[in-house]
Amino acid sequence: MIRAHDERERCWSAAILSVGVLAVLSLVLSARVAQAEGEPARKPPQRIVSLAPSVTEMLFGLGLGDRIVGATDYCDYPPEAKKIPRVGGLGRPNLERLLSMAPDMVIATDLERKDLPDALRRAGIEVLLLKIGNFAELFDAERKMGEAVGEPERAARQVREMQAQLDAAAKLYAGVPRDRLPRVFIEVWSDPLITAGGASFLDDVVARAGGVNVAHDLERDYPTINPERVVEWNPDVILLCYMTEAKDAAAQVAGRIGWSGIKAVRERRVIADISPDSLLRPGPRLVAGVERLAERLHPPQAGKAVPPAPGNPPEK
Amino acid sequence: MNVRRGWGIFGILLALLFGACALSLLAGPYWVPISEMPGSEIVRMRIARILLGIIAGAGLSVSGVIFQALLRNPLAEPYVLGVSSGAGLGAAVAIVMGLSGSGVWGVPVLAFAGALGTILIVYALARTSSGAVPVPTLLLSGVIVGAVLSSILMFIVSTSEAEKLHNVMWWLLGSLQALDWWPLEIAAPPVAAGLLMAVLLSRDLNLMTLGEEPAAHLGLNVEQTKKLFFLVASLMTGATVAACGLIGFVGLIVPHIVRLIIGPDHRRLVPASALAGATFLVLADSFARSVLPVEIPIGVVTAFLGGPFFLFILRRRTSPYWR
């Protein structure tokens, strides 16, 4: 009897225990889900890890540089950013180092491992993944970031300032009809020849600076192309935008096989002196790059009334 | 079969090469009418690529023939002794150090140095105290040195920045994209010299395929011949690699295909492989630059087109092919 009673009691206690565990588990889980799905009603993050140089610049732009506890190897602007402890490459953090920084928020633009956000959220770290492929998305990202870090007004002001600078740049080519805008070939790399296609941010940068990207119809970001295409496109301007130092690049472009007849080469409109960071790195500095490029594409003396040079091949 | 004995095969191969060149002049993203071809900048660019294809194709194929004869191994190819890893490492170092991108000679010079340095190291490692260089030791040390160098290469690749990575990867797959004439200038002299040497000394290659002892009995200075041909083949390989990156498969399959068709006599095999290799690479490049709006690395095309073709030829044989 006693044994049977014991047996029953054990059964009951096991049942109660498992129900309890289940209840606790489901509570925790539902709390998690609620936390993941609900609005972030928490206080603004104090320890932020940035996984992109652009994010770092945007955070500094919001005056939150002192809240960044970790940044990538390439976060070198503003100069203070160099002092932030490194967490790894662009979108490829060293996970242990990241966790050791005890962040409450990680902000990234692109991640090598797509399962990283889930892993970080499981560890209780908020993840903000921003897609920045053109100016519209940049403004959107700026606002989202402002919301997430609790500085929506500053972010909105930043966006207004950037927009104003873009508008100022747009004035430089305000009266130029679209088919008279300079056609620009963007060279991102020479060996192999890589350009920036319609899906790249550079495409938008050139458009905002009053140029037309000749590779706009290539629906990719950085396609490797046959140099024949450049001859056929016959761009008015060649914009060299190498990510690393390239010496004498402009002279080298002019000496290439078959390139001597390209309009940009004949008219010496090979732009090589705009810092690639201000053209390639999405962030507050990008509008400055647009302004500089717009000045080069639309120099004041070559006024709108100047007729095209004689012997121009017809535009397609 | 008169194909195997007669010299008519060279007429056919030459005609094929001319046909490939003509096709290649027309291939590309844009159609250039024949009436506009003289003076067309696009055609000038295509000619540069065709010439580079001829040089690289001939160079890789003939060094493949030489390596297969010297090592008496059907898997021997220009890259077998670690040459590719050495060249790749040299190029990666140059790219990561930022020596590329402005037409400076950094990448080709370091690639060339890497290729030759590797061959010398492998050769020195395989050398016995008596001065002889046994083939199995040579092959083995080549494979191991190659593996070590690739690991260093992969270390550099995995720790470098994304944009440089693209550059390295592209280089490892090879390309005939020529923006300047310098790839032709660095590749042409070593390949021409090596080709001439292989044609003139093709009897020695025939002797070497008999085995080292029979060759020595027949009056050949085996070690000296080996050394000379290693140097020649490595120079040819290094020059091609420096000019257009690592184009795999050409040096392996072209000699085999030619051997299957015209037989193993090196007096005919060497020039025929040069012609066939040139034709193959010119065709592969026409394909690589015209099928998609973006360029395909030529190494992808050579393996994709060459592999099945080789298997087709191999399966058509009824007798065992390699003794």
Describe this structure in words.
The complex is a heterodimer of chains A (316) and B (323). Chain A is of the alpha/beta class and 316 residues long. Chain A has helices at residues 2-37, 53-61, 95-100, 116-122, 135-149, 152-171, 201-208, 227-233, 249-254, 263-266, 276-280, 286-297, and strands at 48-50, 68-72, 86-89, 92-93, 105-108, 126-129, 183-190, 193-195, 212-213, 237-240, 270-271. Chain A folds into 2 domains: 48-163, Nitrogenase molybdenum iron protein domain (Rossmann fold); 176-297, Rossmann fold. Chain A contains 12 helices and 11 strands. A 6-stranded mixed sheet of chain A has the order 4-3-2-1-5-6, sandwiched between helices. In chain A, strands 7, 8, 9, 10 and 11 form a 5-stranded mixed sheet that branches. In chain A, 40% of the residues are buried. Chain B is built from 14 helices and no strands. In chain B, helix 3 (41-71) packs antiparallel against helix 11 (222-244). The longest helix of chain B is centred in the first third of the chain and has 31 residues, at 41-71. Chain B is globular.
The low-pLDDT segments of chain B are none
Helix/strand/pairing category of chain B: mainly alpha
CATH superfamily of chain B: ABC transporter involved in vitamin B12 uptake, BtuC
How many strands in all of chain B? 0
Count of alpha/pi helices of chain B: 14
**How confident overall, as mean pLDDT of chain A?**
83
Helix content of chain B: over 70%
CATH class term of chain B: Mainly Alpha
The CATH topology of the largest domain in chain A turns out to be Rossmann fold
Shape of chain B: globular
- The first-to-last residue Cα distance of chain B is 21 Å
Helix content of chain A: 40-55%
Helix and strand string of chain B, N-terminal first? HHHHHHHHHHHHHH
C-alpha termini separation of chain A = 99 Å
Q: In this structure, how is the largest beta sheet of chain B organized?
A: none
